[in-house]
TrEMBL record, chain A:
This is ABC-type transport system involved in multi-copper enzyme maturation permease subunit. The keyword RNA-binding does not apply. Keywords: Membrane, Transmembrane, Transmembrane helix. Residues 1-28 are annotated as: Disordered. The chain crosses the membrane at residues 50-72, 84-102, 123-147, 159-176, 183-205, 238-261. It comes from the Bacteria.
TrEMBL record, chain B:
Pfam families: ABC_tran. Belongs to the ABC transporter superfamily. This is ABC-2 type transport system ATP-binding protein. SUPFAM superfamilies: P-loop containing nucleoside triphosphate hydrolases (SSF52540). GO terms for molecular function: ATP binding; ATP hydrolysis activity. It comes from Nocardioides cavernae.
Length: 266, 298
């Protein structure tokens, strides 16, 4: 690349030093390194690590409690897994939120976005890192459920591919929703409250106001997820899942990404 | 090499950075000096692509920041030493950056030694760091990728006098190796120790630029009149260089020259004196007084 001549007045140094040339190569850094860094940042702080530990602990406690006090004949692999993923559906969005907001609340964006100025790639890396972590947490939950089944369950291995895939997809959608809300608000407490409260307000509204009932069937993320968890997705269920995810995940994700791309980093 | 051409940033009606141009050549440590709110940080954020410029452009090594391949290996940036996640240890902050920049873990230990953070300090969480330690960590992060250019915002802030001299040595060696350093400061005495050349900015505009010696010994004439704008215009017409300060004009000519022009054109002078050896200091104090809340008390 040629160095354009400039009219800017020179200050300092002298012409004795050779004019340095920039490194050759494509702008920014390879995506794999950005992803690796973002993944690491999600678990290398006390808050991030404790989120993972708390998720694992809550799942373990629920499993243990069910085995001790729950109806023994219901303790099959599938129901144990459903139980242990219940708290994950609530906590995983928080993990996604923390990944998305940290750059702004702790102002680490000043470093992150100078090392990789193409912010869209950082956003993509964050979303992928959150999905990877969600998958890892799910694997742990599956393993814990399996152990619980052997230790005190019915010993029945009744998990179908539809249920397994459904649970995985549902958790990934939830964690992505967290990332989306985090990007949208760029503020951890506001994003957490919104992710927990807004869907609840919406579902109450759809129940209370009869004219909203039909809209609620299509736009209530929690209710359209039920057949997904149960592994009973039929034609219309997929369409409802798509519309609800579009409104609760895709829309905030797009608006939030646009915000990050255009916002001044201070 | 850092090149800034007609860089301007406006926020609504407020102009934070107003048409600044300069080029920092390799082998130099240049201080970007100005009172708080003068536009130093905004200008530096525009140089590093964090803030879009309203107009003008900034290039580093001839490329805009966003065009740079692996910027961390070419430009060391520290825009705010306290902008670190408090829950990470100093070493972890550098390791994460090392992943992104693509340097080894041993390089992390190298820069820790270079900035004088001990093993025990590197293992502490940033939450428990003093401002001076955060500055050292920030410099370590900037040096991680062995860049050719350093852009540091207030790097000496929070350092003790010893630390400031240490920084001078560190940056001087960096520049002697052909590196380019631009660092900002709002303290004249601090920047006098660390930098060799100065770009002085006030209310978004460059008011003086040159080597420290040149600026410090600059004769010049301070003049104040009932109509400074008109007087400045007249002086410029007469090819006499003029710069505006908070309390009047600083003219690069003998007082007699200024007096004659003023008399011929019937401009009422309120003050006319030789700037003397304290020209830079006066100019800086003038700027600070004009922009600070204390006003005349400063």
């Amino acid at each position: 690349m040629s160095t354009p001549t400039t009219t800017a007045p020179a200050v300092g140094g002298s012409d004795t030093h050779p004019r340095p040339t920039p490194l050759q190569g494509r702008p920014g850094v390879p995506f794999s390194r950005t992803l690796q860094a973002e993944l690491r940042k999600m678990v290398d702080t006390r808050a991030g690590r404790w989120m993972v530990i708390v998720m694992a602990a809550v799942a373990a406690i629920i499993l243990a409690a069910f085995l001790i006090w729950g109806p023994a004949e219901d303790a099959s692999f599938r129901s144990l897994l459903e139980l242990s993923t219940l708290p994950l559906a609530m906590l995983l969005p928080v993990l996604g939120i923390m990944a998305a907001t940290a750059e702004w609340t702790q102002r680490t964006g000043l470093v992150t976005f100078t090392l990789e100025p193409r912010r869209g790639r950082v956003v993509l890396a964050k979303a992928l890192a959150a999905l990877v972590l969600a998958a890892v947490v799910l694997v742990v939950a599956v393993a814990a459920s399996a152990v619980a089944n052997i230790a005190g369950g019915t010993g029945e291995w009744d998990l179908t591919a539809a249920v397994g895939g459904g649970v995985l997809l549902a958790l990934l959608i939830y964690v992505l929703q967290g990332v989306a809300f985090g990007l949208l608000f760029l503020n951890t407490p506001v994003a957490i409250v919104s992710v927990l409260v807004l869907p609840t307000i919406w579902s109450i509204a759809t129940m209370a106001v009869s004219s909203l009932e039909e809209a609620g069937r299509w736009l209530n993320l929690d209710s359209v997820m039920q057949p997904l968890f149960a592994g009973e997705m039929a034609g219309q269920d997929w369409a409802q899942l798509a519309t609800a995810s579009g409104v609760w995940v895709l829309l905030p994700l797009v608006v939030g990404t646009w915000r990050v791309l255009t916002r001044e980093v201070k | 090499m850092i090149t800034v051409e007609n860089l301007t940033k406006r926020y609504g009606g407020f102009t934070a950075v107003d048409d600044i141009s300069f080029e920092v050549r390799p082998g130099s440590v240049v201080g970007f000096l100005g009172p708080n709110g003068a536009g130093k940080s905004t200008a530096m954020r525009m140089m590093t692509g964090l803030t879009p410029a309203t107009s003008g452009r900034a290039t580093i090594l001839g490329q805009t920041y966003r065009e740079l391949h692996n910027p961390g290996r070419q430009v060391g940036v520290m825009l705010d030493a306290s902008a670190q996640h408090p829950g990470r240890t100093g070493r972890e902050v550098l390791r994460v950056a090392a992943v992104s920049v693509g340097v080894s873990r041993s390089r992390v230990e190298e820069v820790l030694t270079l900035v004088g953070l001990t093993d025990e300090e590197a293992g502490r969480r940033v939450r428990n760091y003093s401002l001076g330690m955060r500055q050292r960590l920030g410099i370590a992060a900037a040096l991680l990728g062995e860049p050719q250019v350093l852009i540091l915002d207030e790097p000496a802030n929070g350092l003790d006098p010893q630390g400031i001299h240490w920084m001078r040595g560190l940056l001087r060696r960096f520049a002697d190796g052909g590196g380019t350093v631009l660092l900002s400061s709002h303290l004249l005495h601090e920047v006098q120790i660390v930098a060799d050349d100065l770009v002085m900015i006030g209310r978004g505009r460059i008011v003086a630029m040159g080597s420290k010696e040149e600026l410090l010994s600059r004769g010049g004439t301070t003049v104040n009149s009932t109509d400074n704008a008109r007087l400045a215009g007249l002086l410029e017409q007469a090819d006499v260089p003029v710069s505006r300060t908070g309390s009047g004009l600083v003219v690069d000519a003998e007082p007699g020259v200024v007096g004659r022009i003023a008399a011929e054109e019937r401009v009422v002078l309120l003050e006319l004196r030789s700037g003397g050896s304290e020209g830079l200091e006066e100019m800086f104090l003038g700027l600070t007084a004009a922009t600070s809340r204390e006003g005349d008390a400063a």
